[in-house]
Amino acid sequence: MKFAVLDFETTGTQSVGEIIQVGLAIIEEDRSISRVYGSYVKPGTPIPPFITGLTGITDSDVQDAPELDEMMMELVPLLDDVVLVGHNVAFDFHFLQNALDRCGYLPFQGRILDTIDFLKICFPSLTSYQLGAVSTHFGITHDRPHQADSDAEATARVLLKCLEELYSLPLLTIQRLSELFGGEDSDLGWYFDGLLHEREQETFQPEGELTFYRQLALAVGDWAELAPPREENASNPLAALSFNDYMDEVMKRLKAALPHYESREAQEIMIQEVMTALSEDKHLLIEAGTGTGKSLGYLLPAIYQSVKTDQKVMVSTHTINLQDQLRERDIPLLTQVVPFPFKAAIFKGRGHYLCLRKFEHKINKRDFTSPREDTLTAAQMIVWLTQSESGDDEELNLGGRGGDFWETVASDTDSCLGRACPWFRKCYYHRAKHEAGIADVVVTNHSKLFADVKAGHQLLPAYEHLVIDEAHHLEDVAGKHLGMHMKHFTVSHTLSRLYKDSRNGQLPVLRQMLQSGGSEQAAEWSGVIDRLYPDLLTVKETWDQLSDRLFSLLPERSDASAGEAGQLVLRLLPGKRPEAWEELAALENTMNLALSEIIRKGDKMISEMRDQESQSSSDSLATDISGLFKDLAAIREQVRFFMGLNDENVVYWLEANGNYRSKSLQMYAVPVDVSSQLKELFFDKKKSIVLTSATLSVDKSFQFMIDNLGLGEASDQGRLMTALLPSPFRYREQALLVIPRDFPSVKGSIGDARFVNMLVQSLADAAITTRGRMLVLFTSYKMLRQVYDPLKEALASQEIAVLGQGVEGGSRSKLIRRFQDSSASVLLGTSSFWEGVDIPGEALTCLAIVRLPFQPPNHPLAEAKAELLQAQKKNPFMKLSVPQAVIRFKQGFGRLVRTAQDKGIVIVYDTRVIESYYGKYFLYSLPGPKMEHMLTEQMVPRIAEWLEEGGIS
């Protein structure tokens, strides 16, 4: 098999345009690159500046280049009897066919393969499949990205990496891949068929350390064989070791493992404070700014406490990101430096783990909704099984519809066969649960923490000591979990998984299976299924009607201040139901009755089936269907609770998007004040809870958090410790905060023309001075849109790119990666960029805060909290709005200085920080940067001067 790897550079990025450069790399049968051909091509039109910016190819480069005809005379002979390969090959193939046609050649009839498909299959955990990122990952020198010959050679080397990987996989995996693609007539199917024949000829087959089970090759063995970290009857390694001696030993080993490690005062204080809280059964609020090294600050005492007392310590994070960072970075380091064996396990929500039974069923039955994409996703996962020990979806790069595929194969309680499952001992979820059971420290997340409380502590192992990281999110997460939140999609998705039409859905599949079984009970059960269909249709129709009616209650204006782009919001008050609510309640009643019928008949049928042991093939299907009936029961309860509008202590509201209308409807019912529930569920029950974050204090006081989290009583009884750690950074030298005091102010979420013009001008001037490397934080998406186009235009001539959240498409992490990879760019972000974004070093030099991050006061939850404070004769603005905004402001500021070497500038365009009586709370809460205010026109010279002083230019 001979490959020709092709790459074109063209004057257009889509299918229109002319070829300006061609690159072709030939891979011989012995997998060597025998030739790289490259040539410029003279186009009939000038090259657009955008393409020159991307490729570096100018009009003068191509003015003496061969015409298309001449180039094709050289290229066509090279394409004889080859398999054509490209990175995103459809693009290059389209241009090739056009050029062949224009120059009078026959179209290319050979096989075509895409390296993106190969990368997805062979390396399912790569974070990006973009050629530059992949080349860097594999250490392939790719010296001139977006130049065709360099791209073609890099792509050829990437293909060789993939082939190497395919030859190292066990034969069983190749058989499964060949089978998977064999069902469709595709070039990938042809390739895997050929590969299988070739691999079957070989006498030596690689097997590695894999387990082979039920026709799948797995990296994971039986979890029952996982041993606890220390022998059961061994003496306690900490019996005679004081905490200080343990820390001395750890520090000695840390310095040996990391020669550059310097102990930081803030981290030492934190370690002592956390240890005191854990050992004396107290709660602790501890604010630890960026650079403290807070993960080690709580993990080291947690390990000591847990092993010494033989009691688990639970650690909870807000984001999965931080959980993964602890797993990949901090825990491996601690394993090296703690002077005895210990175990720290990561335990996520169940939906993050693959259910092998569902996956096996799905690929054996080829139960695919979109065949091409689903086949690729299944292939990725078959290879991933030979690499993954955790079965955690965060390891997979699932693009496009991959997320929908995952939902159908994720583990969940309701469809779990437990010990009866043939996969039980290989099960990833039960493995994680077992690991958490034998671990000293378990790292979970806030969502799972509350799910566990709601499930009567069935999900997590028992614990008395808890560390909550990113604790400023605790109140929000508590509200979401202790209340209810439901999407239109959840209901329609559950219904269509049960029954989409007479052939699709779990019930029709079960019915077909029963038909082929042919026993008399099978006929009876088929009848039950037939009688369920009309009820399911009733539920679907009623739900659609109810959603339409609820959507029509939403105000038609879409002032985006309450939520992001086009979000419509309506609060429903228990005492004042909207007109015609009776009609809506009647719809809910119809739906409720139909659901009750479905659940009653369905559950009865499933339990009869379970009693008939012989129904083995439909057993796993029956389990999945029974799980869907449980989902319907939960939906029935939630919709009834919401439509009841009965609880005065709950805020009820609807949200939807103006563009997607009732399909995007969401119902919320959240307790106004969760402090009493947090106190009851956590602070009264647990011996010690440590809450930490970079932002817990407001104006050097913890009172806001104490009130909102229900820590008042613990504080009065002397059970609460608090600590504000000194910053490890020299903020006066590292950060300059400037405020343009003559800047115009804004009312609402939209800037007037004068404001927008001044802002664009000022941002552009600042960006030119800092050469891009700038993050601009907005509080409203509308204002971001107002600034995006004019700023892009203003900076185009300076070759500074502007990236806008929600304008460009792509996820938050993709935008951040693009920002870090490009040498000069400005990133505009709204709410989700205020925190959790880590861009250390030179990539970020300037942070601009356009408006103080006040929550929109008309958001239902904010409104209800304000009413509650007013009833208590307190000032909602000072007690709620200001502290919340200060905490977000501190989070935003924290994006700038991430290491002791970072230097940067913060521009605050909101003059309220110096004009209003509450502005000082914002400025005094920051960790001491140099602050200056001046006229707008003096700002850029001052920034330039300050950067030069610091040696950053």
Automatic annotation (TrEMBL):
UniProt record similarity statement: Belongs to the helicase family. DinG subfamily. Type 2 sub-subfamily.
Domain Helicase C-terminal residue range list: 762-947
Pfam family, one: DEAD
UniProt cross-references to CDD domains, sorted A to Z: DEDDh (cd06127)
PROSITE patterns: HELICASE_ATP_BIND_2 (PS51193), HELICASE_CTER (PS51194)
Keyword Transmembrane helix set for record: no
Residues holding ATP: A288, G289, T290, G291, T292, G293, K294, S295
Gene Ontology terms for molecular function: 3'-5' exonuclease activity; 5'-3' DNA helicase activity; ATP binding; DNA binding; DNA-directed DNA polymerase activity; hydrolase activity, acting on acid anhydrides, in phosphorus-containing anhydrides
E.C. designation(s): 3.1.-.-
Gene: dinG
Protein name: 3'-5' exonuclease DinG
InterPro entries linked to this entry: ATP-dep_Helicase_C (IPR006555), DEAD/DEAH_box_helicase_dom (IPR011545), DinG (IPR006310), DinG/Rad3-like (IPR045028), DnaQ (IPR006054), Helic_SF1/SF2_ATP-bd_DinG/Rad3 (IPR014013), Helicase_ATP-bd (IPR014001), Helicase_C-like (IPR001650)
Record field: catalytic activity: ATP + H2O = ADP + phosphate + H(+)
Protein task: 3'-5' exonuclease.
Keywords of this entry: ATP-binding, Exonuclease, Helicase, Hydrolase, Nuclease, Nucleotide-binding
GO process annotations (BP): DNA replication
Claim: Phosphoprotein is one of the keywords in the record: no
UniProt cross-references to SUPFAM superfamilies, sorted A to Z: P-loop containing nucleoside triphosphate hydrolases, Ribonuclease H-like
Start and end residues of each Helicase ATP-binding domain: 253-520
Source superkingdom: Bacteria
Cofactor: [4Fe-4S] cluster
Location of the motif DEAH box: 469-472
SMART domains xrefs: DEXDc, EXOIII, HELICc2
